[in-house]
Amino acid sequence: MNYSDIDTIAAFSTPPGESGLAVFRISGPESGLICDKLFVPFGTRFPKPSDMEGYTLAPGNWGDMDEVVLACFRAPNSYTGDDVYEISCHGGQAVRQAIFDSVIAAGARSAGPGEFSRRAFINGKMDLSAAEAVMDLIGAQAEKQAQVAFRQLKGGISRTVHRRVDQLYGTLAHLEMLLDWDEEEERAEDRATLIRELDEASVELGRLSATFVSGRVIREGLAVVIAGSPNVGKSSILNALAGRDRAIVSPIPGTTRDTVEIDLTLGGYLVHLTDTAGLAVDSHDPIEREGVTRAESALEEADLILWVVSPPLPCVSEREREALRIDQLVAQGKPLLVILGKDDLRITLPQEEDLTKYAAQRFAGVPSMTWSDKQEGDLTRLRDTIITFIGYGQLQPDPVTRERQATSSTVGDMESHEVLTHARHKAAIDRAIALVTQSQMDLKNNFSFDLVAITLKEALTELATITGDDVSETLIETIFNRFCVGK
Amino acid sequence: MPSLAEALSKPNAFVAGQADVIVVGAGHAGCEAALAAARLGHRVILFTMTLDSLANLPCNPNIGGTAKGQMVREIDAMGGEMGRLADLHMIQFRMLNATKGPAVMSPRAQMDRTGYQRGMKQVLESEPNLKLIQQEITGLLVDDVAGEPGRRKTEGVIAATGSLYIATDVIVCPGTFLDGRVIIGDSVRDSGPDQLSPSIGLGEALTALGLPTRRFKTGTPGRFHRRSIDLDRMETQAADRQAKPFSFDHEDDPTWRPSAEMPCYITWTSDATRQLLSDNMDRSPLYSGVIEGVGPRYCPSIEDKIVKFPSHARHHVFLEPTGLDTHEMYASGLSTSMPEDVQRAMLDTVPGMETAEMMRPAYAIEYLCVDPTILKLSLEVNNIEGLFLAGQINGSSGYEEAAAQGLMAGINAVLRQKGEEPLIIDRSEGYIGVLIDDLVTKGTNEPYRLMTSRAEYRLILRQDNADARLSPIGYKIGLLSEQRYQRFLSKQAAIKEEKDRLKDTLVKKSDLSDKILEDAGSTPLRRTTSLYQLLKRPELSYGTLAPLDPERPTLLPSVCESAEIQIRYEGYIRLEHNRVERFRKLEHRRLPNDIAYDAIRGLRLEARQKLAVRKPGSVGQASRISGVSPADIQVLLVWLEQHKGQAVSRE
């Protein structure tokens, strides 16, 4: 457990969600060094961040991510009493995520709720009444932790996380058994076995990390973008989901020239739905071309893309271009659902126009569903698919996730996932993965077992911030359960 | 429990002796406790039930092992006795984990058992402030502290003869003798180990004081005559060619060497063993319900291994010598509480043991111990001034674990009498700290064995630097001589000097350096590099670099060892020191003994109750109590800041 007041913590101090500007705060002894690594001031007038004094403002670049203004408040003249650096950046989600990731990767820890205030209090920067407020905040947090613990007792999360983490405990237990109980010196096969076990453990952790992509989504909303060629019925999907005629629907191709955005709630989650202009690139109409540009940038920011294909199928070259674009997006890791639209017309169409066959050939492996706004039940299916995606971060949950889905009472019963959906958890898991990777390298480079064990234990300590395990105790239990130790 | 005044008011009351510190039991805990207190200038009486069996090694005939070996070096660095004696009586030395890294390298030695016992008796007898008395202690003298309800104080002990002995500090270390019960099949007898009398009465006295007790179990395998074992059919496990002493007194001493280099031998149980034991499982007192005590998972009996690990076709058995003057061999791995006929039949199923003459049968022993969470980290019982517990009574197992607790209890009894703060070794300073903090803060549900995996800062708690970690403390307390301390200081200076020299010694790229590096499995230099940097390459060592270091001075082996480890692992060690810094921050945030936890807003109910009962000494210790959450700790931290400088007390 980490209750340290001497490490460096970081978090956005502006609320989540899209905004013009956002402020990211880093506090602690390493904050200057972290900014040195990432911040490049414009021109030569400004010293590097760790050499800034008192209160300094400097414009510059943050990595290659964004143009920012860096504000430096040197200890003790800051909100927390530590060295504090505040980054004013643009408020787009991608930028926010990139800046957060870069700072955590550079060694800061994601700050817990109320942690800046607590630090301020401990450093004597806050009076008693303010401290009482902090106390209440912490009290509330304790309450929440009790709820979390209760839910974990019920099984859901801890089973899933533990199944993933068990593999790593098993490997470290194996290593510790060799260190504490093995009478013999190192054998060549020990090292090979450990490397293999770590491969499996990191695959498991990777899966765990993948189930958490929906974390930000649950707190800040899911960006769903409807895309496809002109006149395939994109707007009618938006209208169906919105339940009212927010977008203008007409049979003339190119009706939606700009992007149309609405916010709605699905299964209790906020969804930012964007309908795009049809992606007809050869249009000569400048307004339409601008619409296409906007559609492309919406796709960049999308958490989920609904790509609509409808009869009649376009010409061959158009089809090629569309398939290529879909492949690109999938290759980028964008979750994408192909919607086979105007399904009510299917029975009237010739065989070669059958969209399900077309999709199976053209977009093999990409999830798809048939759709018509005239068929009852299609809207429910589409809504459920999006809700499931929010819950699991995947359109086609893997077997373990499915099992979890089966055991949870309803798809809407996502409360237990909330615990796992914090960026803090994702950050912890990703750090654990990095540590596992490092220990694999160390094993390959013939580092001694004791050093490998240190790195692996750190990985488990990271994960313990989610599971609440006492790493030492769990480890010792695992050793005794799996290995016949002792003479 | 009677008070001294009550005991004295009885007819014919006889005060047979008076001391500053009384130690009950002369096992490994008691001997270290008595020696430490006596060497610090206090008058000590050490009681043993029989003078012929003190410092006994009734189970495994060795000292050291993983984590334990490091701790023996720590005991020595603080001024304890175990390491020195082990050096004088070892008959085989091995450095375990020599290839697995410096954090886990662990010295272990087979002992000449009777030699060790004789040696300890001589040391005790020649200690001027120490009286050694054969007398069974059956009661404690304890009185209320006037004006402080709930607080009591220790006044002395009562012997089985009725005699009274007076002292304000009593260290109780009865080991497995406390209400001991030896079990072999369906034979159950009140007994200590080796047919020695159990300690009856003292357990009742502790219970009467209100201490929570439970029963633990441990066991030992049989002993067999060497001539009857077919050692030729077994694998030989030889001593290391280069033995290393536990004690810094013998370090780098060219005249020191083990008394012998006797090998151990390895054989395996067979499928027939498994069959035999499975067929007779209903006769095992472990499974028939005769044994109630909780046994150690790290040291299972052979029937336990077969039940819990049915997929293991065989289990190894080590035949270990037990002394210079005996042919008895210890059969490690065959610990059992099966009836004698099953034990004999089992020998037929172990290759090389078919004709073994059993000189002592294997047995299980059950004993009474106390829940150690009632202790302070000084090993003093909460709310009973001057009563200390050390060794197996605290739920630990092992000679080394006992010795470490004895040493600390002895020191802390003296410090208490002097009115000084107790000496607490924390988890980052030594395995001694890990051991005591685990017992007192976490408690234990089975006989506790120290392991390296229990330590958070394993790379710092090495065997090679036990002196660097603890000798300054031992010297400050007064257990290390001036001469020994000066020798320690010059060793540390030599290590630093050698590290500096290696930094300044540059190796140029040349045909010679290319060849030497390639021969060592490394890559040629690209530019001039210091030996210090070269030493960080995993494939190189201080030894392999010698040809590139013509100016190398002749240094003591211990200096080379420490310098090499410090350089090679510098990065990792620095990271671990950073973690220790953070750990110490909470460890140094003291919690007064009389905080009214009930009144602290924001603490959860469970945490309030646990903290009120356990009275942790620091926020760090509080954070390790099960049931105290991170949020509770944050509340405590904020509360402490709020009440900084104010008198904190219960209304």
Under the CATH scheme, which class of the largest domain in chain B?
A: Alpha Beta
> How many domain units of chain A?
3
CATH architecture of the largest domain in chain A: 3-Layer(aba) Sandwich
Give the low-pLDDT segments of chain B: 647-651
Tell me which oligomeric state these chains represent. Answer: heterodimer
Largest sheet of chain B: 6 strands, antiparallel
The number of distinct structural domains of chain B comes to 4
User: Which sequence of strands runs across the widest sheet of chain B?
Assistant: 16-17-18-19-15-20
Strand order, sheet with most strands of chain A:
3-4-5-6-2-1-7
**Helical residues, percent of chain A:** 40-55%
CATH domain class name of the largest domain in chain A: Alpha Beta
CATH topology of the largest domain in chain A: Rossmann fold
Shape of chain B: globular
Q: Overall 3D geometry of chain A?
A: globular
In CATH terms, the superfamily of the largest domain in chain A is P-loop containing nucleotide triphosphate hydrolases
The proportion of residues in beta strands of chain A is 15-25%
- How much strand content do the residues of chain B show? 15-25%
